[in-house]
């Protein structure tokens, strides 16, 4: 309590005492022993009223008991149902919910995981992938500062993600796996990973790398076969033994027709094999008859140059060749696309040849660009000459209409170095990214496209793109999103197709365990993005002729549709805009692939390592009562008594008002009873 408040209370007591003494002992006609009672009542009443006016604060402490948390995470992937343990999993979950002593000891939260992680609503066992490491990391984020052991109800079979048994080495909570699945080891031949390029060229052979493994105690012989369209393309005998349990086979397969082609790989099961579903796998490739050759012309050595080659060639349909301006003129006609990196006065002959051949190009400028020369060599763009540069950041233009651009986080990318001064286009330009300086957005272009008489040009008016690719990797752990962005620029510049008001972005084939997504952009007659349109897709299964119609949802500046509910097979589709008479058609294939059906047993070994690393324990559904007893009895998970201290104003003490009213009533009654006025 503050000194000032304490002095006020003392003063209030003195004042109340003075008033009481003055009224009942000073100049009183009739003095009696009752005056002391009257004085006490008057003193208490006045002092209580003054305390309410002063309103001091006092500390109020309350106590409560906090139970430790318990996270129960249940595997919702299809491998649980495939192993026949979906009913067992439901039973385990029910026993946890019905255990009185467990619920008395813990605050229990239920979660489910598979290809994602979320609170448990209901179990369907339909997830096509399993990421146990993601579930553990999510639980660690939720219970960062809490005591929260984890019960992991799973078969331990993970299809993607970090190795969870090693992720758990730095895990702060104890993990108790409850193993779902058969722990007996059977003889089993299994096809593992299949490595193959996404594209191949007509009349060439493409390599297929096949990983196969054997689990058993005897020496066995089998046959590895690759088929397509009812035709056997490859067949060979293979031998496995306990000492030769894993093998890699590389087979060159001919690409005989253009388009998407499906292939089936099989390894003949041995006689005692229990699970034959992991003896078969499918894959697909797209056979093409052309490749985009890109010529990159530069006079300087810069990180952007090496980055562009890696990024562009991440699409196996592209090849990049470096050259200097002095050697480029005779080569230009051999390439579909020319990239001019920071051109200067030595590019004079290059510009003349590009004009003569009407070649498409991408121009990238920066600190070393000779703008005086460029302003003379070409007529598309003019840059104000200041001799200075500035750092600029990117802002995505939602009205960009040349092609679909996904926002990959341009706002958060490091700044590029651009020329300081006004940039003017002498023909109609479509700005994809504009410049901003700090929080100030400018009208200056950073990346723009032009199209004049069938000739396309792309301008990237800043250097330092290698930083963007590095930042993209830091944020997303891969280069895919940035490389797709660069690939879209290259594809646009290398193509001479007429601009369309409805643009589609989709894959020619999808694997059954991946998302089946299609993206679209629709533009009005002025080629401004139209967010008011109603866009839908009609999909027809080529085998069953089943028609499915799905609306596309608007997300930022793109319409998109998720078609994960479609069965494997070949499909034709039409995307149309309601009441506009505009439609685009295409086709894609969903390759059947269910990695969850590749498992025969529970992965007891890795679950045991997980339990050991986290100081937990390994259990099975039969020993569930033992697990519950162990959790309840563990001294690490005892309830904790906690207290909270609150500073409460005196005026909030409602009982004081009742006491004051009682004192006043008592004094009045006694005075009246004794004949005092």
TrEMBL record:
<protein>
    <recommendedName>
        <fullName>VWA domain-containing protein</fullName>
    </recommendedName>
</protein>
<keyword id="KW-1133">Transmembrane helix</keyword>
<feature type="transmembrane region" description="Helical">
    <location>
        <begin position="6"/>
        <end position="25"/>
    </location>
</feature>
<keyword id="KW-0812">Transmembrane</keyword>
<keyword id="KW-0472">Membrane</keyword>
<dbReference type="InterPro" id="IPR036465">
    <property type="entry name" value="vWFA_dom_sf"/>
</dbReference>
<feature type="transmembrane region" description="Helical">
    <location>
        <begin position="37"/>
        <end position="54"/>
    </location>
</feature>
């Amino acid at each position: 309590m503050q000194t000032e408040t304490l002095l006020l209370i003392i003063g209030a007591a003195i004042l109340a005492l003075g008033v009481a003494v003055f009224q009942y002992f000073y100049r009183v006609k009739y003095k009696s022993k009752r005056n002391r009672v009257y004085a006490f009542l008057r003193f208490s009443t006045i002092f209580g009223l003054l305390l309410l006016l002063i309103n001091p604060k006092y500390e109020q402490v309350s106590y409560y008991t906090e139970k430790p948390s318990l996270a129960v995470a249940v595997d919702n992937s299809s491998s649980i149902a495939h192993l026949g343990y979906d009913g067992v999993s439901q039973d385990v979950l029910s026993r946890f919910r019905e255990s009185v002593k467990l619920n008395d000891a813990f605050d229990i939260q239920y979660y489910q995981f598979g290809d994602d992680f979320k609170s448990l609503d209901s179990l369907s066992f339909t997830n096509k992938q399993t990421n146990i490491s993601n579930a553990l990391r999510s639980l660690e984020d939720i219970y960062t500062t809490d005591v929260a052991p984890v019960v992991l109800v799973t078969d331990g079979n993970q299809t993607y993600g970090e190795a969870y048994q090693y992720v758990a080495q730095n895990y702060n909570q104890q993990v108790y796996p409850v193993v779902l699945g058969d722990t007996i080891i059977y003889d089993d031949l299994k096809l593992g990973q299949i490595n193959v390029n996404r594209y191949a060229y007509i009349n060439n052979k493409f390599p297929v790398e096949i990983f196969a493994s054997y689990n058993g105690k005897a020496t066995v012989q089998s046959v590895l076969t690759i088929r397509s369209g009812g035709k056997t393309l490859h067949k060979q005998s293979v031998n496995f033994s306990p000492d030769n349990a894993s093998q890699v086979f590389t087979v060159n397969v001919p690409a005989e027709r253009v388009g998407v082609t499906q292939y089936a790989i099989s390894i003949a099961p041995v006689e005692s094999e229990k699970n034959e579903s992991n003896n078969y796998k499918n894959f697909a490739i797209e056979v093409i008859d052309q490749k985009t050759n890109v010529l990159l012309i530069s006079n300087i050595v810069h990180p952007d140059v090496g980055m562009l080659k890696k990024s562009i060639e991440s699409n196996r349909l592209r090849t990049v060749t470096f050259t200097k301006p002095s050697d480029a003129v005779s080569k230009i006609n051999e390439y579909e696309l020319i990239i001019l990196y920071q051109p200067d006065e030595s590019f004079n002959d290059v510009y003349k040849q590009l004009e003569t051949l009407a070649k498409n190009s991408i121009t990238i400028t920066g600190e070393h660009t000779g703008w005086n020369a460029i302003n003379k060599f070409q007529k598309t763009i003019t840059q104000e000459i200041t001799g200075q540069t500035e750092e600029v950041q990117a802002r995505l233009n939602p009205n960009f209409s040349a092609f679909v651009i996904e926002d990959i986080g341009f706002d958060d990318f490091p700044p590029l170095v651009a020329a300081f001064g006004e940039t003017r286009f002498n023909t109609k330009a479509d700005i994809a990214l504009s410049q901003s300086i700090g929080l100030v957005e400018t009208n200056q272009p950073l990346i723009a496209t032009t199209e004049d008489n069938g000739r396309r040009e792309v301008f990237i008016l800043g250097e330092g793109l290698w930083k963007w690719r590095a930042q993209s990797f830091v944020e997303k752990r891969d280069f895919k999103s940035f490389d797709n962005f660069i690939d879209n620029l290259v594809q646009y510049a290398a193509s001479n197709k007429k601009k369309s008001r409805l643009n589609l972005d989709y894959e020619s084939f999808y694997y059954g365990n991946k998302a089946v997504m299609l993206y679209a952009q629709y533009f009005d007659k002025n080629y401004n993005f139209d967010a008011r349109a109603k866009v839908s897709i009609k999909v027809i299964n080529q085998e069953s002729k089943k028609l499915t119609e799905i609306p596309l949802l608007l997300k930022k500046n793109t319409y998109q549709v998720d078609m994960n509910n479609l069965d494997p097979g070949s499909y034709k589709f039409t995307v149309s805009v309601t009441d506009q008479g505009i439609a685009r058609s295409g086709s894609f294939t969903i390759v059947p692939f269910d990695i969850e059906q590749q498992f025969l047993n529970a992965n007891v070994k890795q679950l045991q390592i997980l339990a050991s690393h986290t100081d937990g324990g390994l259990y099975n559904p039969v020993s569930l009562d033992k697990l519950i007893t162990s959790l309840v009895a563990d001294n690490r998970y005892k309830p904790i008594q906690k207290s909270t201290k609150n500073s409460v104003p005196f005026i909030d003490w409602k009982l004081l008002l009742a006491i004051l009213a009682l004192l006043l009533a008592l004094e009045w009654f006694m005075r009246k009873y004794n004949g005092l006025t």
